């Protein structure tokens, strides 16, 4: 009898190989028009097989939590979307398509079962598996073995965890010993494993201790709680400018269908955290931002612009190798927190009143020249002058200490044309004016003076 564990793992390899269905040449299991699908640079055959192996291992952990057919089907669907961006090398395109077609049939069989009873437990399904699902799995196993043979010929050091040839034709013998009544052929393929055969766990007690086992973030918002006490240091981990060399790190991976500004926070963690974000390009990792104590207390908070179709790896390290309960949350940037989402001022006079308590300090937020180092919780506005003339900007009415900076064109040191942090009548708000040129675009940055605060109501007037 197949166990619930066996059924849960069925999606691991199935989903891993569906990556080509929306990428560079695979078929079935997701299909659709490639024109809007995110893409990454073409993979070499070796990298392709390593990517599939890694995705299969990652999927194992997620699918193992499914209890019902509905949950199992939902996980498969999510992973199908997540891996759709990987391109398939031309020399394995046909074989990949064969597997994708067979895998798609498995998905269809599970969909039919879920349509009748999505709350059916996986253990009950294992006791009475429909012949159509069994046959679809066998076809997927056969196509998997073809890909494994190609990987072996290419000397790719991977194990795609395929089943033994012909094994699925056997039937369990109810009178046999547990070893003899294994699922057909004692296969190793996900979907046919027994609990006793699951020895491919992570190298430590922390599931995402290794960068290759990064927890996949499928959508934003996302949150997770994790005990990092068992995490280990890996000499192969990339180093961060915030100082994480030689420290134990846990990893998360995210790739989005749409570009998005994201806030990464470890608020609620009980140890001193350091967060670093790396962009994956051509097999290399480049750090795009990091933070040590930008959040509450000794926790971290960092803002990152994530581009669609690009894979990012998020590493969370304990300062001076600290560990404990990690609480991590990813959320969409609020309003005009990001330069890229600056509020447009279409006409003058203009007034805006917003709460900036959830705003963050972005990696691209420049500091004010009139208050060096001050760029906390920046809010952004953009104004294109329809005619030449004097423009006055004020934060009077705000309930926190503000710093105003105006940039002509893209915000950078060379484009700063006005800055003010002087208190008005003993207060802590700022005001400035500048002469606008017709047709010129100006960016207005309102930052908080001092450390990030818990609250803050901004009132901005431009006239």
Report on the structure:
Helix content is 21%, strand content 25%. The chain is α+β, with helices and mostly antiparallel strands and 463 residues long. It has a five-stranded mixed sheet, with no helix packed on it. It has a five-stranded mixed sheet with strand order 10-12-17-14-15, with no helix packed on it. Helix 4 (69-82) runs antiparallel to helix 5 (93-116) and helix 5 runs antiparallel to helix 7 (131-153). The longest helix is centred in the N-terminal third of the chain and has 24 residues, at 93-116. The protein starts with a helix and ends with a strand.
List key phrases describing it.
463 residues; alpha+beta; five-stranded mixed beta sheet; 21% helix; 25% strand; elongated; disordered N terminus
Briefly characterize the structure:
With 463 residues, the chain is of the alpha+beta class.
Strand order of the largest sheet: 1-3-8-5-6
What is the N-to-C order of secondary-structure elements (H for helix, E for strand)? HHHHHHHEEEEEEEEEEEEEEEEEE
Largest sheet: 5 strands, mixed
If helices are DSSP runs of H or I spanning 4 or more residues, what is the number of helices? 7
User: What structural category characterises the helix and strand content?
Assistant: alpha+beta
Query: Which percent band covers the strand fraction?
Result: 25-35%
Q: List low-pLDDT spans.
A: 1-41, 167-203
Helicity level = 10-25%
Overall pLDDT metric: 75
Give the overall silhouette: elongated
Quaternary organisation: single chain
Indicate the topology.
Elements: H1 4-8, H2 10-17, H3 45-63, H4 69-82, H5 93-116, H6 122-127, H7 131-153, E1 215-217, E2 222-227, E3 249-254, E4 260-265, E5 273-281, E6 284-291, E7 301-306, E8 311-318, E9 325-332, E10 343-345, E11 350-355, E12 376-384, E13 389-394, E14 402-408, E15 416-420, E16 431-436, E17 441-448, E18 457-462
Parallel strand pairs: 1-3, 10-12
Antiparallel strand pairs: 2-9, 3-8, 4-7, 4-9, 5-6, 5-8, 11-18, 12-17, 13-16, 13-18, 14-15, 14-17
Helix pairs in contact: 2-3, 2-4, 4-5, 5-7
């Amino acid at each position: 009898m197949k166990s619930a564990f066996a059924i849960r793992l069925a999606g691991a390899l199935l989903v891993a190989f569906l990556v080509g269905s929306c990428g560079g040449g695979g078929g079935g299991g997701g299909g659709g028009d490639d024109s809007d699908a995110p893409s990454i640079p073409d993979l070499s055959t070796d990298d392709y097989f390593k990517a599939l192996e890694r995705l299969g291992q990652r999927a194992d952990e997620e699918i193992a939590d499914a209890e019902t057919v509905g949950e199992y089907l939902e996980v498969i669907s999510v992973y199908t979307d997540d891996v759709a961006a990987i391109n398939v090398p031309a020399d394995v395109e046909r074989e990949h398509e064969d597997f994708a077609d067979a895998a798609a049939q498995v998905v269809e069989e599970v969909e039919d079962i879920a349509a009748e009873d999505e709350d059916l437990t996986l253990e009950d399904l294992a006791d009475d598996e429909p012949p159509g699902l069994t046959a679809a799995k066998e076809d997927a196993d056969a196509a998997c073995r073809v890909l494994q043979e190609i990987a072996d010929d290419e000397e790719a050091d991977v194990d795609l965890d395929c089943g033994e040839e012909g094994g699925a034709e056997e039937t369990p013998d109810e009178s046999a010993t547990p070893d003899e009544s294994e699922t057909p052929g004692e296969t190793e393929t996900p979907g046919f494993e027994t609990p006793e055969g699951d020895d491919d766990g992570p190298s430590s007690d922390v599931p995402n201790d290794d960068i290759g086992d990064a927890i996949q973030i499928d959508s934003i918002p996302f949150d997770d709680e994790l005990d990092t006490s068992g995490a280990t240091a890996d000499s192969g981990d990339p180093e961060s400018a915030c100082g994480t060399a030689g420290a134990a790190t846990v990893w998360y991976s995210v790739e989005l269908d749409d570009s998005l500004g994201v806030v990464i926070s470890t608020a609620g963690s009980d140890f001193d955290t350091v967060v670093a974000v790396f962009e994956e390009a051509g097999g290399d990792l480049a750090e795009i931002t990091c933070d040590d104590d930008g959040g509450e207390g000794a926790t971290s908070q960092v803002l990152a612009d994530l581009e669609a179709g690009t894979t990012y790896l998020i590493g969370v390290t304990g300062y001076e190798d600290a560990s404990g309960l990690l609480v991590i949350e990813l959320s969409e940037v609020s309003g005009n927190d990001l330069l890229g989402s600056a509020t447009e001022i279409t006409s003058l006079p203009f007034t805006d009143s917003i709460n900036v308590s959830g705003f963050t300090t972005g990696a691209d937020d420049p500091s004010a020249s009139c208050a060096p180092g001050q760029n906390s919780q920046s809010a952004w506005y953009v104004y294109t002058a329809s005619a030449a003339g004097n423009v006055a900007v004020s934060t009077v009415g705000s309930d926190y200490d503000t710093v105003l900076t105006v940039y002509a064109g893209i915000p950078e040191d060379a484009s700063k044309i006005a800055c003010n942090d002087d208190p008005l009548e003993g207060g802590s708000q700022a005001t400035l004016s500048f002469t606008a040129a017709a047709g010129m675009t100006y960016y207005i940055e309102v930052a908080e003076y001092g450390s990030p605060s818990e609250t803050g109501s901004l009132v901005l007037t431009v006239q």
